[in-house]
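user: Kindly work through both lines:
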Amino acid sequence: MVAPYASAHNLMIRKLESIVALSDEEKQALQSLPIQLAALKTDQDIVCVGDRPSQCFMLVEGFTCVYKLTSEGKRQIVAFHVPGDMPDLHSLHLEVMDISMATVTPCTLGFIPHEALRRLCEGYPRIAAALWRETLVDASIFREWMTGIGRRESYNRMAHLLCEFWMRLRAVGLTQGHSFTLPVTQVELADAIGASTVHVNRVFQELRTNGLIRTTGAQVNIPDWEKLKEAADFDPLYLHLRQDDE
């Protein structure tokens, strides 16, 4: 279901207010941004390698991923994004896309012309700084993922990814206690942690057997947050959330 037009602006304001206290004038400037909503189905590309976009998008509803393909067509997912994120902010300054982005679930996206964002940043330096911070946090998450792929076992990588999902979804009000909806397939999880789908299935079974998670369909429950954090070697510092303690 496509969210009302106003909710896209409100989501952006709520996200930026988690970083800086916005003045009434700054909020009004954000409310005035031209945002074109679009509903996309699952597994649709949003931007691809080689594209030269003239707009950025904000994720209003659903999940998206960032990925790259090898010459043999093998996919590596390098990030997932949740509502409130603006995954392609860097396209404001990098003319050609070097990665691809796609929907993981049915999504509502809010597209904002580059020119409108540039005018906003020129007129409101604190908003520009908050948007810059978003790209820095994306880079921080990427560094953590690289460390996991290079130095953690798949069991620990999966536990780490589940911890990250819970914390990021909690930050935008999409958790219920220590439960959350994870509408991501095992194929996509395998492409994210660098393992086979069969191995991801085994890892999930092991996590359930060890009492670290319970799953019902797409619903994930974390019975013991501290034990899952320990298994994941998870330190939320890299997410740079305001409320990163539990």
The chain has eight helices and eleven strands. The two ends are 32 Å apart (CA to CA). The chain has two domains: 5-145, 153-239.
